[in-house]
Amino acid sequence: MSLPIEQIKTQFCDHLAAGNVIVAAATGSGKSTQLPVWAAQQGRVLVIQPRRIACTSLAEYVARQQGCKLGEQVGYAIRFEGVFSDNSQIVFATPGVALRWYFENKLTDFDTVMLDEFHERRWDMDLLLAMLKQQETHHLIVTSATLSTQRLVRYLDAPLLTSEGKMFDVQEQFLAKDMRTMPSKDNLSERVTAACDYALQHTSGDILVFLPGKGEIIQCAAQCKSLDALVVPLFSGCAPDDQQRALQQQPRQRIILATNVAETSLTIPNITCVIDSGLERRTHLRNGKTVLGLDAIGKDSAKQRLGRAGRTQEGLCLRLYGQYAPLIDSTPPEIHREALTELVLAAGCATKGIDTLSFIDPLPATSGQRALDLLRKIGALDESSRATDLGRQLYPLPIDVELGHLITCMPDNRLRQAMIDAVAVMSVPARVYRLPGSTEQLEALSKALPHNCDLELVIALLRGKAPGVPTEDEAIREARQFSQQLREAFALPPLDKAASYDRDALLSAIASVRPDWLFIKKDNRRGGFGNGHSEVVPAKESRICDASDAILVLDTYALAGKGVKQATTLATLAAPVTRSLLIQHAQTDTMLERAYLEGDTIWVELIRHYAGVALERQNHIASGPQLIPACVKLIEQNQLFDGLWQQNNRMLEYQKLYHQHEQSEMPAVLSAAQWLAHALEDLGVEAQEDLMLIEAQDLFYLPIEDWVIAPFIEKFPLEIVLPELTMSVAYSFTAKRITLEYLQGNRKDAPKRWELPAWGGFKIRYKKASKVVDVK
Predict the structure, then answer these.
(1) What is the assigned CATH class of domain 4-163?
(2) Is residue 562 pLDDT above 50, yes or no?
(3) Would you state the CATH architecture of domain 170-336?
């Protein structure tokens, strides 16, 4: 059977011989399998495929079609696994592998580079395209499953070929009661099961269900087991047998529960019904960090999902949300919603710096600068944004740059090994382990690892010393591969010869590098811990107990909410720490809590705070930078220079009133405390003995000459005292109104005009409680 892509073969080969070419073709058209074969006629081809599962399955398919053994003419390379040779004419590789190869030799082993599924707009694909465009030594093929390719055409100045193929009608049904209902996780497995049951009655082909992640797939698989169909999970890292059952037609009707990997990257045969949850897991930026959120898909993804049901015959698409749900038009590129640290470092290693590259979409200025600042701070980039020796050491590591830096900062090899093993577990995207379910197993774990420490647990787990802790086979295998690769990179013993380590020394070493990872328990109902910038709550899978007063948080998980209150950050990998460790490493604030006199000596009580929580209190004789603030506090309490505080505050009030009366601009006025602090400093107070040389009048606040302010105060007092009546006075000079307000006294009637100052031209009112009368 001829594939739709065949119609552009001649044009494609001609354009590729002359330079670059862009191909827009629907999923299932054959672009991922045929274009590399045609391109190989003109030289060796590297196909960069965003997803590992697609990378391996496409290589297997092309090798089978070419009649060769996988790894000979056709091969693949993914993280930890390479099945190819120097003679392979076509190599499928993930972007991470391609970036490392570019760093090593600029991909000189290949004549043509194909960036497949570019519409997914991953940051590593954007970077590879920018570097290959700058280099101008390869023929480039850029493919997209959508027709929104005009920006690509302008960017590469390359011809666009399209192959739409045949699309059968797909009936679309929306199963939400309200037409504007947004996609939701509520009762998702029940709604999916009901939709699958309906689909089994209305279609004879297989059913493809789009779900946001592995957790939802497992839940829905358990619910769907009651249905008369073969239930197959499909996600990155799923079992090879499940992958084969998903990619090859089976004798029994299938329900394939898949993530976005099935949206465009893979061709799944015999799909006649798509069930769309409308959900996906998408990255976001929060406080400069990349977090994973559960989000509604964009309209572009909704269109791609529907298209999977109409490839070979008429199909059915069941949406689990409303027909007029306000979805976004398209999913933003990763460079707009992720931290750019890895991108900027990769550019610094492989080019003359990030600023020398021209991207298809400009990098966000804030994220780019934040990445530059971080990488320069840790010494991975120089001032011209080129990688240093440390940067070149960190870049090839298969882990986050900041975690790599943390490993290099460990003070000895024992701690470096422990840190490597912890980072190895942190770097696996899937859940590696679960806490035991039974009381007996938990007690056995607590006996073996008594600190309620996640960090200690994951290191022990990787080393096979965590009794009774269930693990995910694929995930723990990947974590051990990470550990082995990192140990080799740092010339350390293999995992089976791991050295023992001191847990307290490890926590102290981590905290010294990352004091922002230290959190202290907050006094709130959520059981949260804060570091002054953010708050975390221990996740259910964490061993952190309620008695923990402070923790070191190495890994978190967050669902991005619509606002700060809806967003909860869960600490998934943490370690309990002491307050003394916080005092040693955290960026604390010391505040003067109170000042007091013992005899003629001034004492102060200082409190050290972290994230708004008091860590420790200290009492000592006031000296140095605490002396003047202590004096100000004692003056405020009338324990030093009695009456001075009231005198200066009253003069500040009169200064403000005078400028209102004169309608002149009020100068910048310090508070009474600020004025006193400056005055004491100007008088040279450096030791307590210096106070003996000062009198109260030396500290009077006199902003206006006495001959001016004295008659003004007499004419416009702020308080009036009459027999058995004391009142405050408020002036409105522009409205020519004065309000007297009762403060204290036994007098029942209002004051008389003749008892008051000579306020000519003012209307005078007297206010007592809620009653206001005119003064006659």
Answers:
(1) alpha beta
(2) no
(3) 3-Layer(aba) Sandwich (3.40)
